[in-house]
Model the fold of this input.
Amino acid sequence: MSDEISDLGRKLRTVVGDNHLLQDADLTAGYSTDWTGRFQGHTPLVVRPANTFELAQVVILVAEAGLAIVPQGGNTGLVGGSVPLNGEIVVSTVRLDQCEAVDQLAQQVTLGAGVTLVQAQNHVASSSLVIGVDLAARDSCTIGGMIATNAGGINVLRYGAMREQVLGIEAVLADGSVISHLEGLEKDNTGYHLPSLLAGSEGTLAIITRARLRLHPYLPVRCTAMLAFSSVEDAVEATSALKRSVPSLHAVEVLFSDAMHLVSEHIGSAVPIGEKSAAWLIVEAAGSNDPLEELAGAIDDLGAVVVDVGVGVDTSSRNNLWQYREKVTEAISAKGTPHKLDVTLGASKLAEFISQLPSVVSALDGDLSVYMFGHLGDGNVHVNVLANNGGAPSERVDAAVLEYVAKLGGSISAEHGIGTAKKNFLHLNRTTAEISAFRSIKHALDPQQVLNPHVLLPQEDS
Ligand code: FAD
Ligand code: MLT
Ligand code: ZN
Done:
């Protein structure tokens, strides 16, 4: 270890205490590799401050040492933005785990950035309120990470993505100063809206320490249906019809054929309905009153395009249907290390994209498998590419998929962010003027490039 790092380590230890400055490789390893295993970095130091004040001191000391930081929450991000790929210092928010009392009158709560989604869900449940964003990584992903990535998940069509939930934010800037605006006023036009700026900033502009979130009434009655379709077009049209006709619609998720068969094999349960179908929707309706009749009527109206239907009304039968969607990420990772391409297409291009994508990939390399699933209600398809020989797919595959998305007018990142995985493709969706505006914002808030300097923005031509 260099003298510079030893000296920094000593100073950081005085701020966070011995137990929260990790140096041994076996202790830092878990902070250095991402959830998928695709992105493996290394770090000399992991620092775990206990509060905003300590975190600000940490940022100042790292900046003084001329080093860079990767902020890390639950490390469930899927684009290589949360791990130290260039030897950065990892600042973990794991100890910022305070949940303040729920403000029942305002239907809001202030949470530490390191609170996991499941902790937040449990905390607000006793007030019969819910957090608007839910996703399968709920046991590990944190409120700070969810804001930093503007996470989406399964209920975006009802409540919006994470940005829509954030009413106020506290964060440490790259110079160690703290911005804090947690009053939670629904209307507050006093200049730039910093929560919106930090949502989706992927740790490049500030480290979020606390957030004030909007909550929503808990909807106690739910029903879930799985619908099988023989064509992708039918599934896309059915999604549009359901969005029009079911006011209590809570989620419209999708699995396409290869992904459904993979997850079914992984969990050891047969494909529940329509085994030879091309697509399965998982549709959930939720309300204060029973939404079953409304959902059943809308499914009837879809007519013969629905090949088969399975319905879940109690928790166990609903969970049985949901497990096929919730466990698909795990099923793919159990088979290999995927390249994950998370994209959105406009409704009119979805079917074309999903049908053509396998041939776009196989034209480059015939020894790859493509698994697709996602949040069809938001036009969001998760394309996962695995090499059949157990190796890694080439970066050319990412380029081909993302260029195809851009050609169809879609977004190369629906909800996971840009990270390091997609920064060299940002130009596919953003003009030179936009990227230059991004750089100006980054430079204004972090002139010394302390915070996640290798994430989101492509390297500038020298
Ligand atoms: P991390 O992975 O730790 O970090 C992600 C990014 O945010 C990094 O750039 C990091 O530097 C930055 N960051 C973290 N904390 C802070 C902070 N306090 N301040 C500033 N920057 C910070 N994502 C979805 O959008 N929808 C899904 O449905 C979804 N499902 C998933 C299912 C599984 C099984 C898995 C493994 C992942 C899934 N994800 C999904 C991706 C991931 O869970 C989200 O991106 C999540 O928001 C990341 O939170 P995290 O705390 O793990 O952040
Ligand atoms: C999901 O919707 O399940 C996630 O975004 C995770 C993934 O893409 O694997
Ligand atoms: Zn997703």
Observations:
- Residues 108-217 form a domain with the Uridine Diphospho-n-acetylenolpyruvylglucosamine Reductase; domain 3 fold (CATH 3.30.465.10).
- The pocket of D-malate (ligand 2) is lined by residues 78, 136, 329, 340, 342, 382 (CB under 6 Å).
- The chain has a mean pLDDT of 97.
- Residues 263 and 330 are 8 Å apart (CA to CA).
